[in-house]
């Protein structure tokens, strides 16, 4: 952290190691009314070594004692989400599921701080919490190329989360998004062009969502 409270993500230390690929389960099924995401929440990419080893330089900053464990992940949300009359607050814990099956959490830690700034994550921006659920706060996505970013995840209100680039292919900033971290324009939605609200990942807090713009669902719904 700098003296003014900001930080440089590109030089932030990360948990070391590259644990090989896990036995991953993940499926997305859709009907006209609902989209169901299910799996075991394990990442499709190598993860850092958790618990953090005492020999890891990250240990002096964050001694995460948790091991990555399979979970029962299942969310059912509207396939055609609707913008709610009023936005709603994000809960602690999971607020969506990445398109790779890993859940993503809101942007604050248990002490109410910027989690990406204060928690030490692996090189893919993830780590396990107490139950062993591996999750992202900063998203690990391949966002190279031009044009509007591709879909990278689903918020639990059914609206989609896209990568860091907007319509013109330029990286989106918070100033271009509303309080919930989204905006409305034509996007590719289930194979057709639709003018629809959607969220964007950014390199600024809160990184993914600031609030729910639709009606959220619960796990197992």
Walk me through this protein's architecture.
The chain has 221 residues and is mainly β. The protein has one domain. It is 2% helix and 25% strand. The protein contains 1 helix and 11 strands; from the N terminus they run βββββαββββββ. The chain has an 8-stranded mixed β-sheet with strand order 6-7-5-4-8-9-11-10, with no helix packed on it. Strand 1 and strand 2 form a beta hairpin. The protein is globular, with a radius of gyration of 17 Å. The mean pLDDT is 90.
- First CA to last CA: what distance? 39 Å
The neighbouring-strand order within the major sheet is 6-7-5-4-8-9-11-10
Biggest pleated-sheet summary: 8 strands, mixed
Strand content: 25-35%
- The chain-level structural class is mainly beta
Total helices: the number is: 1
Helix content: under 10%
Cα-based radius of gyration, to the nearest Å: 17 Å
Uncertain runs are: none
Mean pLDDT: 90
Reading the helices and strands in chain order gives EEEEEHEEEEEE
Number of strands: 11
Can you tell me the overall shape?
Answer: globular
Number of structural units classed as domains: 1
What's the helix and strand layout?
Layout: E1 26-30, E2 34-39, E3 73-78, E4 94-98, E5 103-105, H1 115-118, E6 126-128, E7 134-136, E8 151-155, E9 160-162, E10 182-189, E11 192-200
Parallel strand pairs: 5-7, 9-11
Antiparallel strand pairs: 1-2, 2-3, 4-5, 4-8, 6-7, 8-9, 10-11
